[in-house]
Design brief:
Jelly Rolls, 207 residues, alpha+beta, globular, four-stranded antiparallel beta sheet, 2 domains, Arc Repressor Mutant, subunit A, single chain
Length: 207
């Protein structure tokens, strides 16, 4: 019933308005959800991280454009058979409801990211949002006062596109946050957050 699909960085996964023939769980990578504005610009409306669900049972068409921010692997299910499985499996329905509520929380978090006034706040908020999600998926990581090491799932270019900033601005802000001791930049997309509480305080959030 399930099958896996892999998408290289930048490849479209689905287009808004297309028939929703498949639903999927994100196995690895980051999926960017966006909508096209009246002037033709694409606006990012959310990010899907591993364990998030793409698509909605019962919805006949795709709600948003979806694309791969980096390499993405999806565990896919044909929508109609999946809906029949849900009808016969109350525990799966309950789990899907939990995932839907998680996505609502993630959508609110993303609105918070985009609502930040300065480029520094936007970059710091994105780092904190992704780090918090990753620590939630891996119990024991990111405890208060302990450094959190992670392979950040977005390139700087993808961060810039998602945040509505230039690549140069993102690079400058990452450098400034590193100089202020809020993060340590490693090779590639590797980075460390010396204390996630300090990063949370930078954006006025509770850790």
């Amino acid at each position: 019933m399930k099958f896996y699909r892999r998408f290289p960085a930048g490849q479209p996964i689905a287009w808004a308005g297309d028939p929703a023939e498949v639903v999927a769980s994100v196995v690895s990578g980051v999926v960017v959800l966006s909508q096209t504005l009246e002037d033709g610009r694409a606006q990012t409306v959310g990010l899907l991280l591993p364990s998030d669900f793409l698509g909605r049972p019962g919805r006949e068409t795709v709600a948003f454009d979806a694309s791969a921010a980096g390499e993405v692997t999806l565990c896919c299910f044909r929508r109609k058979p999946f809906e029949r499985l849900l009808a016969d499996s109350p525990h799966l329905t309950s789990r899907l409801l939990e995932m839907t509520l998680d996505e609502l929380d993630a959508a609110r978090a993303w609105m918070s990211v985009l609502g930040r006034q300065t480029a520094r706040e936007r970059v710091a908020s994105l780092l904190w949002t992704v780090a918090r999600r990753q620590t939630a998926l891996t119990p024991g990581r990111g405890r208060a006062g302990q450094p959190l090491r992670l392979d950040f799932p977005l390139t700087r270019e993808a961060m810039a596109n998602c945040l509505g900033l230039t690549l140069e601005t993102v690079s400058r802000q990452l450098g400034a946050l590193a100089r202020d001791g809020l993060l340590v930049l490693g090779p590639g997309r590797a980075l460390a957050l010396p204390d996630i509480d300090h990063l949370a305080a930078e954006i006025g959030e509770a850790a």
